[in-house]
Amino acid sequence: MRKLNYLNIMLITILFYSCGPDEAGCMDENAINYNIDAVEDDGSCEYDLFIGPDVITVDPVKINRKVLVIGIDGFRSDVLTSQITPFMHNMTLARNGYYNTSHIVEDITYSGPNWSSILTGVNQYKHNVLNNEFENDNYSTYPHFFKYIETAQSNIKTASIVNWIPINTYVLNQNIDYSPVQPINDATVLSEAQNILSDSNADVLFLQFDELDVVGHAHGFNSNVNEYANMANLIDSHVENLLEIIDNKRSLGEDWLVLIVSDHGGEGTSHSDGNDPNVNQTIFFAEHSDIEFQASCCYVSNQADIASTVLNFLGISSQEYNFNTDGQSVVL
């Protein structure tokens, strides 16, 4: 009997220590210190670093092109319907472009990591923004795409108008011509964008609408929730208004690319479950009248692709960016 008790104690001891607390470490397979046993990323990933100086080349045929990036916070893909968002839904049917409603977001499905990946062209493990506090960011090594634009040709007019102020406060606080940090609502984002575009005060413009996410948190991220559907419909009208301005400028000979992207979807009143397809997938559209894109059927985009698409369309190639990026341009 004593022998049996001793064996039981040993077995319990072994099980206790072998099933200890979840191991934290680097979870990016591309990092040089990837930890296959880690179940929680601790921000420790290390990568081969670019050895400068950077060399930037510019395609003189493309550098005068222009880009509008429309960011919509908290857009769940199934709200894209002919009834709720008729203009954007019709875009996918009637306009030339790349259209993905299963666009892959970052493993951490918060706004900070995802807007950072969208703007820097690298994943969360590199820019190291793992929450909405922006602590321990690595933007000095992995800067936003506006930095490469400004370095390539400083007379290009760049601007960012956002409702969620941390984007301009932390990510776009330098190497951009205009990025105000005063709190504003979505209606003001739209009106400022209208003025900037009408007055030709931006060649590359980034916008972020936030109120769809706010309504999702308050009432639910779901197309069957009236408040969420109504806000999505309002955002759709903002997009229609902006595209009307862009189409008018195109008719005057300006060459514009329009990108529409979200940072995450949602489920219930949250977007914290990174394993839920309603959360970890969202929309990414790239629209242009006559250039060739990746096939919408066959290429699955991710957040890092947005920066790569912007720079490729503008004909800007940076050795540093190309070495660091985790993205691929959807413009061929």
Describe this structure in words.
This protein folds into two domains: 2-41, no CATH class; 56-324, Alkaline Phosphatase, subunit A. The longest helix is centred in the last third of the chain and has 26 residues, at 226-251. It is of the alpha/beta class. The strands form three sheets. A six-stranded mixed sheet has the order 5-9-8-4-7-6, with helices on both faces. Mean pLDDT is 94; it is low at 11-20. The chain contains twelve helices and ten strands. It has helices at residues 2-18, 86-94, 111-120, 124-127, 145-152, 166-171, 186-198, 211-219, 226-251, 277-280, 305-313, 319-324, and strands at residues 24-25, 40-41, 56-58, 66-72, 97-104, 158-162, 204-209, 256-262, 281-287, 316-318. The chain is globular. The termini are far apart.
β-strand percent reads: 15-25%
**What is the annotated CATH architecture of the largest domain?**
3-Layer(aba) Sandwich
Q: What's the overall average pLDDT, rounded?
A: 94
- Per the CATH scheme, the topology name of the largest domain is Alkaline Phosphatase, subunit A
- CATH class category of the largest domain: Alpha Beta
Helix run count:
12
Strand order of the largest sheet: 5-9-8-4-7-6
Look at the structure and name the CATH superfamily of the largest domain. Answer: Alkaline Phosphatase, subunit A
Question: What sort of overall outline do the alpha carbons produce when their principal axes are compared?
Answer: globular
Indicate the structural class: alpha/beta
**How far apart are the first and last residues' alpha carbons, in Å?**
75 Å
Helical proportion, percent range: 25-40%
Count of beta strands:
10
Spans of at least 5 consecutive residues whose pLDDT stays below 50 are 11-20
Q: List SSEs in N-to-C order.
A: HEEEEHEHHHEHHEHHEHEHEH
Could you tell me the radius of gyration in angstroms?
Answer: 22 Å
- Count of domain modules: 2
